[in-house]
Amino acid sequence: MLKRQSELTLSPYTALYDILIPKDNELRRLNEMIDFSFIYQELLDRYSMGEGRTAIDPVVMFKYLYLKVRYNLSDRDLIERTKTDMAFKFFLGLAPEAEVIHPTLLTKFRRQRLKDMDILQLLIGKTVEIAIAKGVLKSKGLIVDATHTVSRFNLKSPVESLRQASKVLRKHLYQAKLAIKDILPDKPTGSDLEEEQTYTKNLIDTVKLHPEVAVANGVPEALHSLEEVVDDIEAGVAQSNDKDAKVGHKSKDTSFLGYKTHIAMTTDRIITAAVITTGEKGDGRFLKDLIELSRANGVDPDSVRGDHAYSGKDNLKLAEKENWKLYSRLTPNISNGFRGPDAEWDYNKDAGMFICPAGHTAIRKARTGKKNQGRNQKQTYYFDIERCQKCPLREGCYKVGAKSKTYSVTLKANVHQKQLEFEQTDEFKNEVKLRYQIEAKNAELKIKHGYGKCWSNDIQAMTLQGAITLFYANMERILTQTAKK
């Protein structure tokens, strides 16, 4: 049963908020700026209005998630802090003496109430609406890029994940009281998951039995992180760990297991659109989506800045057709030739290789043909034959018995002459330099808000994390800029 909470629960102690929380407090200003009732309206049909136990107001639950991202806290640490942080309670609409929720309710809210909801576009659209209304978003120039987020399991087995988290906890315990080594359970030496889980449980129980170290500097946070790893692994084992994460590339020689967030941001540094995909996807193909989503959110771009992953011929044609400028340096390797959309091959700028429709990355490349012979040269990409032989998409792509599988791209020196000439102008050189803004934004998302690692173990969880994180990033920018006026 859903019962809507009033703006602030009545209490004889409510006046404390006027004393303790200044007018310029970030959370107070956020409450005044945003009518969060849009969350309630979006989630209304996911609750029973007259049956069952009374549910926590979805607006309150959403605000908990906002605080989690804003202060980069685990679920347990967030709830512990909320018990004593008056600014948190004010933001949540709780009375100073009110009880807080149990951490597990946040997990249930994420997995059950927000499932199958297009919350990413909802939250970005809301912040863009506010930014326009407040006069913070004025530019129609976009900057595009993709940032990677590693899976919570990130190529590690559950045993390795538990051991790493346990190691961090033991480090803080030893710093607090070296003698505690004598009473901690013996570390397992094998690689059996059940044995590791038993050890972890005993370690957690031992720490909780010794309050003199359980509250020492760094121990509570490390303990809560270990408990969350335990919870994730228990859910992950049942769901085959992270079934959605895919291997992508940060560079030619460096890979990661996880996801990509393709972002469009104005030169005012307001994010206008985002698309979240698995890690192996290339960047350039999502430019059209980012443009369309930005328009849907109220920003019709007149220009786009991006790295050379976005300079494919389809994007150049799109820019010419829709009459906006593309500040992206050409690369001779980005082209899908005359293949249809069903056989789309992606160019991964980080690896410097093409990715086949099945998601496999080429293992090497070579240039064929002679220069200055009246014919265009080709760049040929070679794929792993063993993978091709087992690939579910091999029919019509790989010929049985073939000793190699290649993909060739014609290096067309003259086709993009117009863009090449544009690259030489002072306008292009100045505008393309603005790309640093989105690189700084990506670093901020990862370092400040924990966006470098996925909360849970599927793309649905990654999308929710992206929605909340990007919502906060935009609101932080809006609050900062309005404070200057």
Automatic annotation (TrEMBL):
Lineage of the species this protein comes from: Bacteria, Bacillati, Bacillota, Bacilli, Lactobacillales
InterPro entries: IS1182_transpos, Transposase_11, Transposase_InsH_N
Pfam family, one: DDE_Tnp_1
Leader peptide range in chain numbering: none
Residue ranges of every copy of the Transposase IS4-like domain listed in the record: 240-454
Transposase InsH N-terminal domain residues: 18-111
Protein name per Swiss-Prot or TrEMBL: IS1182 family transposase
